[in-house]
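batch job 7 of whatever, protein = Kelch-like protein 15
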Amino acid sequence: MAGDVEGFCSSIHDTSVSAGFRALYEEGLLLDVTLVIEDHQFQAHKALLATQSDYFRIMFTADMRERDQNKIHLKGLTATGFSHVLQFMYYGTIELSMNTVHEILQAAMYVQLIEVVKFCCSFLLAKICLENCAEIMRLLDDFGVNIEGVREKLDAFLLENFVPLMSRPDFLSYLSFEKLMSYLDNDHLSRFPEIELYEAVQSWLRHDRRRWRHTDTIIQNIRFCLMTPSNVFEKVKTSEFYRYSRQLRYEVEQALNYFQNVHQQPLLDMKSSRIRSAKPQTTVFRGMIGHSMVNSKILLLKKPRVWWELEGPQVPLRPDCLAIVNNFVFLLGGEELGPDGEFHASSKVFRYDPRQNSWLRMADMSVPRSEFAVGVIGKFIYAVAGRTRDETFYSTERYDITNDKWEFVDPYPVNKYGHEGTVLNNKLFITGGITSSSTSKQVCVFDPSKEGTIEQRTRRTQVVTNCWENKSKMNYARCFHKMISYNGVSVGVTHLLREDRHVSLDVISVPFSFRNLFEHLFPCISVCNFFGVLLFKCLKLLTFLHGFLLKMQKYKFSIQS
């Protein structure tokens, strides 16, 4: 019918247009502009140049004098570089080498041919090494390359090879004060010992005497508390910059005080003692192999499915509780193998410092405890209730980090073990557990602001519960479960023993402290007891590590989020 309209689309139109321009170019037909660069002349089609380059599009369509000219002189680029760029505009291909990439990048930036700029950047980053790093930095800076991801990849290489690069004169010459400060403040330098970073800074300062005026400022980005005392004495205090820089002398004095005040280190939150770590690390501390052997390994998850083994205290100890204070790890109590070959409750406390990868034996708890709960509030670590092989108790004590001493506080209302705790709004929440009669739904909160007198805290035999307050009970009785707090709520994570059937249930509940009630969330993939739990705040992931399969009576090696 006359009114019917059908549309058709050519599958070869784009390629035929490109091929047509190439044919005209090769045959020298309809060329309407000559570009003069240095002593060379390049003939081309204005239409094609305008479609390929924003620079030429504006030149030939806007109100510019070049619009009507047939011969145009271009300055600020080379004929060699432009010849490659012009070939790309007609043929879509380009050949790069370290000998030509400089001129090609210059020409591509000049005519705003972004695709070629990206090719040049990819080529340079693929070829980067210690020998040409400074040259590539200078090249990208000279032409003001601002392609997404290029600077990040360049910085990643620099941070990965920072110390070796700082031994090269060409790199030292080009590295600016501002860039140096930026790199020293970056936690991706964690692969280098701090003393090596200090020595690298010395190399930069010595390279040009005029740089010495920056010493005081640069020194503030070196974390001297991450060094060893011997490094500070032998390599820092003996340098010429120690005599020159007042700031360096101050930083050294601060570090030496830090080393001397061993017990207070977890509470000294200074930039100089802050760990260089670009992302949170997952670490597993000890455990059991079967029912009778202690797994003393301490494992660091370096990357997916790759665990590194760290050095641990040489004690056959299965710690029950772990507390973290400013990235210091305290392992408390649990059970240790006695001379009779049996496991007994332990009062031992160990502290791990990831800065030095070292362990310290701290003051023992006042009583041996296993299957108890801990929480950190201010400068105190609280240990609540628990049991030995012979008795269950309600005593509560706290560890004063500043003086390495334990003292009793108001005891828990009832004898209990297998409970769990978490700190929320400077209060210690204790949930579930096993009492003398049954598995518990109880939720009890310890408020340290209501603590009694010293005389009351030292009376272990008399129940004084001014600090403890019962809250709404959980929906299910639980024991050997986990809790973790985040963003104003505490999350009670699986697993419980049903009193009637002794089976694990995969229930996650959230006690909303401001409403004093519990709500159910989602089930886990698999059900374990005695597992570990951690929260990745940046990813909003709740992650469970390993555990014990109650039905099958065996340990499970698994991670679920």
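notes: Residues 164 and 324 are 35 Å apart (CA to CA).
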